[in-house]
């Protein structure tokens, strides 16, 4: 057993704040008092009870009994090779690489800048390098980081590291991930420093953030629910941290748990509502479509995965076993549906273009979206917008009945045109070129507006200045 007493740390600043101008200190003090008062109310509120560490072994045992699957947790200790294999599977489900691999030639060595409203946080090196990575960390240090968001010297970690979700992951799974990380090539690399503004560079202030945005505690299986539901909840709310992108945030960047998975914006991208609401969410999708989307990134007639979701599919969900994918879908079906007020589903818009002569146009005056479409897009998506290859792996998808084209906000479409699509899975290598380099903001706006008007939601329109802004995000 681990020595838990060595993990107890005083909740006081270990790196005392340097002396600052009065304004900053007063702001920090006011923030602290405010936080304390909210925390006091929270502590007495209905959500106050802490979930204690309970074994998930029962749910796993049920799982294992039903499905002879190498991802179900073992009854006894694992042989070393199996432990590492399991750790790799879990690290993929948790998508550690999404943030800790900035450069493919330096896997897990960090260096990815993450922009937040408070400044930029750069991911650290988590290879076993003793000087620049986590080679000198004990297992207890590692568990404390994953479960409590506390670094090796007791410093508070920023929630850009999703410990708020990983806190639900069992100790056994955290240790399997560690065992896998230990087998990686140690890389000697120190990522650039964070650039956060005062007072956000004061890590100890996270004590207050945690008080009302973080509930420490392992996932507690619900005995009323099936093993599949429990496994799905464990993945969605814990390891796979879907809510980190799909759940809206409050003014402090904490997740709004009462609007779970109802959609949020990150770096311009809309991570859509994935609650079971029929119109605003994914309630109209079949189970098989949801599984196909997570396994391959394509659900013909519904959606394709581009941008951050394309990466989630390529780095993480494509590796999940059929049992785990099924469990995720079972759980997604059960979260409270949240309506965004839509009157028609994102994937339910559009009709094929039926007049190619109209598209060719006569006099070229100014920027013409239809002509830009014929020149740049029709070779793959067809001038009618119906795509090529229907539902075959790697098909050029139809733009009709596509959630990105039918969304009420045109950002994702403009971003897809700017950056293209690049997604490699065991299923197919899909590649759509990026047009950001040779089309200007006005052309991309005209093209976006043509595509939404013709093939999607005509209310979604964009101007050149918003395209210019989207270009700067990432
Ligand atoms: C969404 C992005 C993201 C994901 C996913 C992520 N991390 Fe991190 N991680 C970060 C950031 C950002 C930090 C630095 C936080 C800070 O500076 O306070 C961090 C810090 C850490 C630290 C502390 C390292 C140190 O030197 O203090 C460890 C350990 C860690 N992550 C492990 C993991 C593991 C293991 C996974 C997968 C299970 C993972 N992370 C997934 C963003 C991420
Ligand atoms: C890094 C951020 C991120 C994470 C983590 C993430 N998603 Fe997404 N997701 C997105 C974005 C952005 C889109 C929109 C993609 C597009 O327009 O091509 C999306 C789209 C989707 C869609 C398609 C919805 C539609 O109507 O088109 C589903 C389903 C989905 N995500 C499920 C999940 C599940 C389940 C998880 C956890 C296993 C997850 N996502 C984790 C960012 C994320
Ligand atoms: C070389 C072929 C090619 C060209 C040219 C091309 N695309 Fe694509 N497009 C693709 C492929 C491949 C995908 C991704 C399919 C997948 O996700 O499985 C895609 C996906 C899309 C999507 C769906 C993205 C999502 O997140 O759901 C849209 C919208 C789109 N393209 C619009 C356009 C527009 C507009 C143009 C012209 C500016 C264009 N494409 C040019 C091949 C192409």
Automatic annotation (TrEMBL):
Primary location group: membrane
Ranges where the Cytochrome c domain occurs: 82-185, 227-336, 364-455
Keywords per UniProt: Cell membrane, Electron transport, Heme, Iron, Membrane, Metal-binding, Repeat, Signal, Transmembrane, Transmembrane helix, Transport
Pfam families: Cytochrom_C
Compartment(s): Cell membrane
Ranges that cross the membrane: 21-40
PANTHER family: ALCOHOL DEHYDROGENASE CYTOCHROME C SUBUNIT, BLL4482 PROTEIN-RELATED
Protein name as annotated: Cytochrome c
Organism: Paraburkholderia sejongensis
């Amino acid at each position: 057993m681990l020595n838990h007493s060595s993990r107890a740390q005083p909740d006081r600043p270990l790196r005392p704040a340097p002396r600052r101008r009065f304004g900053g200190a007063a702001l920090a003090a006011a923030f602290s008092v405010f936080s304390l008062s909210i925390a006091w109310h929270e502590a007495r509120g209905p959500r106050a009870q802490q979930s204690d560490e309970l074994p998930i072994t029962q749910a796993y045992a049920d799982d294992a009994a039903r499905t002879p699957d190498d991802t179900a947790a073992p009854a006894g200790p694992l042989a070393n090779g199996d432990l590492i294999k399991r750790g790799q599977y879990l690290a993929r489900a948790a998508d550690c690489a999404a943030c800790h691999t900035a450069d493919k030639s330096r896997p897990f060595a960090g260096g990815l800048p993450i922009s937040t409203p408070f400044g930029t946080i750069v991911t650290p090196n988590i290879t076993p390098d003793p000087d620049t990575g986590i080679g000198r960390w004990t297992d207890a240090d590692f568990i404390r980081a994953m479960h409590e968001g506390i670094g090796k010297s007791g410093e508070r970690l920023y929630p850009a590291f999703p410990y708020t979700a990983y806190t639900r992951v069992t100790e056994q799974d955290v240790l399997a991930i560690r065992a896998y990380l230990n087998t990686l090539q140690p890389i000697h690399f120190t990522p650039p420093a964070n650039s956060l503004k005062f007072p956000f560079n004061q890590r100890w202030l996270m004590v207050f953030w945690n008080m009302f945005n973080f509930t420490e505690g392992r996932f507690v299986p619900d005995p009323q629910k099936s093993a599949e539901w429990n496994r799905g909840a464990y993945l969605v709310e814990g390891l796979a941290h879907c809510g980190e992108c799909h759940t809206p945030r409050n003014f402090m960047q904490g997740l709004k748990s009462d609007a779970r998975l109802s959609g949020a914006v990150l770096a311009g991208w809309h991570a859509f509502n994935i609650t079971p609401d029929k119109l605003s969410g994914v309630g109209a999708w079949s189970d098989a479509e949801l599984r196909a989307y997570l396994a391959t990134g394509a659900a013909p007639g519904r959606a394709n995965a581009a941008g951050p979701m394309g990466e989630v599919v390529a780095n993480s969900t494509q590796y999940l076993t059929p049992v785990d994918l099924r469990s995720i879908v079972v759980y997604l079906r059960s979260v409270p549906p949240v309506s965004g007020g839509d009157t028609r589903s994102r994937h339910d818009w559009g009709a094929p273009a039926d007049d190619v002569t109209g598209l060719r146009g006569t006099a070229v005056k100014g920027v013409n979206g239809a002509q830009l479409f014929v020149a740049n897009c029709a070779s793959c998506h067809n001038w009618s917008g119906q795509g090529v290859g229907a539902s075959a792996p790697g098909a050029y998808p139809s733009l009709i009945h596509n959630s990105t084209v039918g969304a009420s906000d045109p950002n994702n479409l403009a971003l897809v045109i700017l950056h293209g699509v690049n997604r490699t899975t065991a299923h197919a290598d899909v590649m759509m070129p990026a047009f950001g380099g040779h089309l200007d903001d006005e052309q991309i706006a005209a093209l976006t507006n043509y595509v939404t008007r013709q093939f999607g939601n005509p209310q979604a329109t964009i101007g050149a200045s918003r395209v210019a802004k989207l270009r700067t995000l990432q």
